[in-house]
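$ run holo --ligand "S-adenosylmethionine" --emit tokens
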Amino acid sequence: MWRQWRARLGEPVGNYNDLPGHIRKHASGKSFADIGCMWGVNGEYAFQAEEAGATRVFGVDVFGPTPEFEEKRRTRNSKVEFVLGDISRADTVARVGVVDVVFCAGVLYHHPSPFDLLVALRRICRETLILRTSTIPEVQGLPNAAVYFPMMDARARELWSLKRLGVLHQAGISNEFQASDGYGNWFWGLTPSCLESLLKTAGFRVDHRATEAFAQTVICTAVDAPLDHRLPGEDEAREMAAEISAAGVARPA
Ligand SMILES: C[S@@+](CC[C@H](N)C(=O)[O-])C[C@H]1O[C@@H](n2cnc3c(N)ncnc32)[C@H](O)[C@@H]1O
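-- output --
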């Protein structure tokens, strides 16, 4: 009903099944990286990018490769390169380098620092980001709102359960946050407005946004990041400190 209502309003309605179409549209003749390529899909989107004509394809994940991935790679005579790594770490970013198209589905809400994850995606992205992520509905009168899930009690977590939409288990929501589950936990419920602001701050222009009740798919262009906090050198930092003290502008908050 929600889908039909939004479609009638003329809004682009998203769907997980649209992801292969986005890949086909953007991957041909481009280098491509699928970040979070493994769980339940065994690198399928990386292989689809290769089939669509991507020139070089990376699949990145914090576990794997699974036997299914290796089997697909063998039977398709594929050159998809698997990188075992956490994309929010500099060493993983360096191993991937820069690719034309970055695809990242189902990862952002699993990271405790979504801005850092988006900045990492921007670092490896030359042209286009295709991102799908779980979101929460907008909170009227509170743009850019977000909810941090860990450590909520069972009653508070119940509100964010997507069981009725067919999501059987949400680690950290269906049960208590478990440190041992790492990035398997659900960390952030971002509203679409919050997601868009994070993307813009990380250096992405949102060209297309398809909405679902609890998810967003965005196609973005990499642009100059508006936030670039440069750490000064030691001498420069000391000079700044002297100027600030002389001006008397720094007061305890
Ligand atoms: C919910 S699954 C999504 C799988 C697939 N992309 C899809 O859309 O169906 C999230 C995947 O991202 C991986 N992942 C989570 N955090 C990651 C990180 N920081 N760096 C790389 N991979 C990560 C997980 O191991 C898992 O394979």
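-- notes --
The two ends are 49 Å apart (CA to CA).
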